[in-house]
Here is the input.
Amino acid sequence: MKALLLRDVRLAIRAGGGFGLGLAFFLLVAVLVPLGVGPEPATLAKIAPGILWVGALLACLLSLDRIFALDFEDGSLDLLATAPIPLEGVVAIKAFAHWLVTGLPLTLVAPVLAVLLNLPGPGYLWLVVSLLAGTPALSVIGAFGAALVVGVKRGGLLLSLLVLPLYVPTLIFGAEVVKRGASGTEVSVPLLLLAGITAGAVALLPFAAAAALRVNLR
Amino acid sequence: MEMVVDNLGVARGGLTVLEGVRFALAAGQALILRGPNGVGKTTLLRTLAGLQPAVAGTLRVPPESVTYAAHADGLKAVLTVAENLAFWAEIHGGGDVQAAMAEMNLTELRDRRAANLSAGQKRRLGLARLLVTGRPIWVLDEPTVSLDQASVTLFAGVVRAHLARGGMALIATHIDLGLEEAAVLDLAPFKARMPVASGGGFDEAFA
Here is the structure.
């Protein structure tokens, strides 16, 4: 299990691994939105929570199809399926590796980019907390979608269409946490719902994804 | 340790390609599968490796004993030879990477990235993976593709050593590996009869 995690992280970080693609996209969104919307601090402060969450979500979406497609193409997935690790474990580890190279870096740079969007002071803490609680769900749901379309040539579009509706609750509650945090109101309800979605996805979706992979490997 | 296949039927894309396949393999034995293109060698091997279900018959294999090698070697281009092997060794609970590299004549290439290997060298690396898994039953689909004559002989020696250790091997191949002791199974007689057309698609919906 540890070997698989280390390999996936190493593959992502080495040349051509796609690490940084999501980060660069997130950076572009945060830089371009103020240019497009205009420098009005009040307007920016109002839209900042939503833009930051949408940016993080789309950045996450960019690298999803790499989770299984590359291993499927070079035959590693067949070999992993016959290896002593249960396929559910393979899915969980690969989703965790995906979060380590996309979700976690996005969470860490978000406060820096929030400055560009003039996020009100109290919002910073809740931005980091909400991304920390929400991005694991994005990776696990994405791994499930990637398992469904593995083997489909250029399945990226299909993957986005499948996964985006499943991302909506995470987006709504995530942005709501930041919005309420920024305006200084109570955040516990959306934060708990967000954490609940993540916990449910992490607990259930590896099994669904493994079942989808078994069907697709036939 | 024994592998018993009885009356096995396998399907590809929903269509049964082989039926009634039967053979038994005991420790130290090898079986070479032959048959024309498209007869279902790969489908049979994937079924035996547990990657797809059989449509008929029984398949008795000790659990966690099969390792599979197909046309794709499962190599990561940005990892070195040693890293690729070390990964599979660790996944399977720690095989001897050095010994495997020595056996497949890869020691000199150990720090070369898989992307920079020739097709034959990649194949040798893919086959070296079999050694680090420590699994007794090797299910091999065309293992000698892109190997030169010397490497084929080297590989035949590795298979022979594996059999001598009590392992088993099932090999689908078109060329002569020089494994005289291996039994040969021709799959052509097991080819499934074409299914009889069921009287025209959607007719029953309109009856």
Notes: Chain B has a mean pLDDT of 86. Residues 2-195 of chain B form a domain with the Rossmann fold fold (CATH 3.40.50.300). Chain B is about 30% helix and 25% strand.
